[in-house]
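Objective 1b. Sequence-to-structure analysis of Methylamine utilisation protein MauE domain-containing protein.
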Amino acid sequence: MFAMVFLIAVFSVSASAKLWDRTSFRRTLQDLQLPSILVNLGVFAVPAGEWLFALLLLPNKTRMAGLAGLGVMLLIFSCAAWRASRLRQQISCNCFGNLVPETFGWHTAVKIVLLGIAVAYAIGRPMASVHLWEMPLLELAAAGLISFALLLMYALWLVMKEKQV
């Protein structure tokens, strides 16, 4: 269950941050030298997809579709990271919108792999008959708080890393 709550937290924070600062996210897509039609589509489609697939994890009947969608999103993010490495430029990642200073690099690949592991784990251990909201409240709250604590620690690490440069 923790993997599911963690994925919901990560992708909903990511989607919200991208929607909050669409200008910054648009700049990232432009810096990746994508065609303007993909930039215009991506500014809304990427965060909408993140929100949609995170929400699909809630009901048991749509959970596998949500996990598959998140897997596709991770493939798209992998393509973006690959593209940034091919351009050999410092491109702002905007993985979590403009909440934290972050450029594409090795840590982007590590983040994608870790999220991929969480998706694969959730697929391999399906909670087919259990709704998340039917889980014990204390367990659900703990998973949510730990998920947001991990996100906060990651953000703080990025800020501290940025200040050292």
